[in-house]
Amino acid sequence: MGTFILVSVLILIACVLLILVVLVQNSKGGGLASSFAGSNQIMGVRKTADFLEKSTWTLAIALLVLSLFSIFVIPRQRVAEVNDTELRQQLEESGQTPVQDFQAPPEE
To answer: For 51, phi and psi rounded to 5 degrees?
Structure first.
């Protein structure tokens, strides 16, 4: 369960960062890069656009990998176990004793 929560939080962080990076970009190469027009800047216009493009791809790939990894960490219970537990609780609440011990059918 803890791993699932951690992966879910990482997915949300990657989504928010990806949204912010995409909104900062301009479709024609402007956006945030246009404000760095000075030639004495350490990161020029082209380097800023390259950084934003690389960060977009990195975040998109990270989101894809985290989404695929989340499949393996989703907490699951078998249906038979859930039904067995619910049935035992209902019997205990009603004061009845079970006639036989309920077990899940054998897996094939």
So the answer is: -60, -45
Q: What's the CA gap between 23 and 28, in Å, rounded? A: 13
In three state form, how does the secondary structure of 67-79 look? HHHHHHHCCCCCH
| pLDDT tens track, the chain, 108 positions | 788 889 999 999 999 999 999 888 876 655 555 555 554 445 555 677 788 888 999 999 999 999 999 888 888 765 555 566 777 777 777 766 655 555 666 766
Domain coordinates of the chain in residue numbers?
Answer: 2-94
The residues, ordered by sequence, that sit 6+ positions from 5 with a Cβ below 8 Å of its Cβ are: none
Distinct helix (H) and strand (E) counts, the chain: 3, 0
Q: Which DSSP symbol is given to 84?
A: H
